[in-house]
TrEMBL record:
Subcellular location: Membrane
GO biological process: monoatomic anion transport; monoatomic ion homeostasis
Keyword Transmembrane helix carried by entry: yes
Name of the protein described by the UniProt record: Bicarbonate transporter-like transmembrane domain-containing protein
Highest taxon of the lineage: Eukaryota
Membrane topology per record: Multi-pass membrane protein
Coiled coil: none
Any single Gene Ontology cellular-component annotation: basolateral plasma membrane
Main location: membrane
Molecular-function annotations in GO: solute:inorganic anion antiporter activity
Length: 154
């Protein structure tokens, strides 16, 4: 007798939206600002730091830049089958990520600078990101690859 393996294909029946819990927790955190300074004075700073750190780490899930940074430490065979990774050469992905990291470091260095005159330049630098993206970055990466990396053609 032949023993046949039977494979069943799972199909998605229903998608349950789970953004409501995140929205409610953020609303409650925002409402806690109205309770200043009395109830928040009893909450240790380490608890608040942990809360904001947790919110920051959970926000990294699904962030395309963070996912591309993790690609720097992976072998190419282990890359996830995302659409833009299949259409863009590895070198261009890493160039684009490097340019974005440089821009982020410049923004953070001015935003967190101890000098007030450097902090005043932050909005100007923020506006300069647009011409950098549209005039300078296309000199390093072809337009068809930029369109895939930007997620315009999903």
């Amino acid at each position: 007798m032949f023993n046949y393996l039977v494979f069943t294909v799972a199909s998605i029946v229903k998608v349950r939206e789970t953004r409501v819990t995140g929205l409610l927790s953020n609303i409650l955190i925002g409402l806690s600002m109205f309770m200043l300074p009395y109830p928040l004075a009893y909450i240790p700073t380490a608890v608040l730091d942990g809360l904001f750190l947790y919110m920051a780490v959970t926000a990294l899930n699904g962030n395309q830049m963070f996912e591309r940074i993790t690609l720097l430490f992976m072998e190419q065979a282990a890359y996830p089958p995302n659409h833009y990774i299949r259409r863009v050469p590895q070198r261009n992905i890493h160039k684009f990520t490097g340019l974005q990291v440089i821009q982020l470091l410049v923004m953070c260095s001015f935003g967190f600078a101890p000098y007030a005159y450097m902090k005043m330049m932050f909005p100007v630098l923020l506006l300069l990101l647009l011409p950098v993206r549209h005039k300078i970055v296309p000199r390093f990466i072809e337009a068809k690859y930029l369109a895939a990396l930007d997620g315009q053609h999903q």
